[in-house]
Amino acid sequence: MADMKHNVTCRQSLASAFQALSDEAVKAGWSEGDVALALAELAEERVIEITAKVIVEGSIHPQLVAGGRNG
Questions:
Q1: Does position 63 have pLDDT exceeding 70, yes or no?
Q2: How far apart are the C-alpha atoms of 38 and 35, rounded to whole Å?
């Protein structure tokens, strides 16, 4: 699992792109609330997909998950 410092660095690297995406959606006519909710839901779905992938891969190749493999 990534440490907290690594997570903050990742967040910082994504922040400007995330803001630009949000800004573009608002410019297209969506409310800030709708955009924020949609982005949160998309992020949650992505976490679920990745978690499921890790579980499935872990059941097939437990040494890969135990090794902390990225990606």
A1: no
A2: 5
